[in-house]
Design brief:
Layout: H1 3-8, H2 10-29, H3 32-57, H4 64-76, H5 82-98, H6 110-122, H7 136-144, H8 146-152, H9 156-173, H10 175-182, H11 185-194, H12 207-224, H13 232-250
Amino acid sequence: MTIRIFWADSRGKVALVLVSLWLVAVFSQFRPFALLFPLLAIACSFVVDACLSRLRYGVWFFSLSSFITGLLIGLIVDPTSITVLLTAVVLASVSKYVLGLGKQKHVFNPAALGIVLSSALLNRPVAWWAATWSVVPLLIILFGMLLPLLQLRRLRMPISFLFVYGIGLALVSGGESALKLTFDPTVFLFAWIMLTEPITAPNRGFWRYGWGVFVAILVIGQQVFSVSWSDPLLTALLVANGFGFFLTRVL
């Protein structure tokens, strides 16, 4: 892959944003896991994706998607457990090749599914460690994701999500708390990168405008009805993935 092709692909731009987030986390925290966990997740993601592709389609397949999925998992899962990390990566890869309607048509956001299931199975919290330490990750995500989302015509998704999410939080917990929680780097990592994943985030019909709104309502709904299962952001995304896939591709 040439630099021109890499840059023309929106996934290349997303990969650069995540690498920037990773490098800043490494230099800010100076802990071995900050460097080693994402590296291990990326390597595992490439290997498992390639093996599953060979088993199902007869070809060894390597892509930027494997890199992005592995790096996302490495930046989000509990950084104290290699078992959680590897479980999340394997489950994410399996979901691409099992839960869908063929190649590159998986139902659930792979990183989100792997993280939620590994967290639940191994009883570990979702850490979001690379985005929780400062406002710097928020700025990296905000300015870094503008270009790829404009390219994909999906800029409305994170904006509508944050708008509805902020209003919902204000109604539930008050304006000051809502402002702080809405402009949290963790929420920005979710809204600008995971929510907008091209394969699992529908972008036609009603969903073209309502995807971010729908996911935000699901997140707030968990708080209103005191529903607690793993991470509320990722859980809402997976529920929305299921509904979106059924309504836009099955019906």
